Amino acid sequence: MRLQKFLADAGIASRRKAEELIAAGRVEVNGKTIREMGFLVDPEKDEIKYLNRVVKPAKKKIYLMLNKPAGCVSTCHDESGRKTVMQYVKDVKERLYPVGRLDFTTEGLLLMTNDGALTNALTHPRHNVSKKYLAVIDSEVTDEELEKLAKGVVLDDGYKTAPCILKLLSEAKDRSEVLCIITEGKNRQVRRMFAAIEKNVCYLKRVAVGDIKLGNLRKGTYRMLTDEEVAYLKKFISL
Question: For the RNA-binding S4 domain, which residue ranges apply (predicted)?
Fold first, then answer.
């Protein structure tokens, strides 16, 4: 088994993040630091360590959704000491990691699992998994401005966003609610899209990932995905 796949399956990180950990020299096999991508290991015979801790294969695959509150980061650890989403799932025995990220001030649906193959599939750009957000803007938003966003706008780093779907849910002079459906996952993308038309997002909540919906799950709590939801997500592995 390739070392990065083993780390992902063991719940250390996604496949791509595991490759970064290997390249950074944070992984050892039988006492030797490994930086080679695709290095083969035998989990039954080899001792694999990450940050000097022995890594063991995950015994049980876990799939859950968390209603992430604002004020925490979507990582397993934070060097700045900020609260992480792991504090909301600390009663889960298996080691989990987030599927993608929601920024510090964004709320809503965050998938978490120890299934590295699924994480890799859901975060790969080629699969175009849709993400649905409720955005509150602190000003009026016109139909023309939404049409411009829907066609794609150039962000502050020069990247042009792909076409997306936007629907105005309510509007007033100092407040507009917009439903946004995007298939990309650029850092702080929804906020940056509105910033490109000089609008400020004062509240952002992700309410769905593909066909998986947040529903009425309370903020700061989680639930296990149903068998049907897991089956739906796993179809992306084989695409």
Answer: 1-63
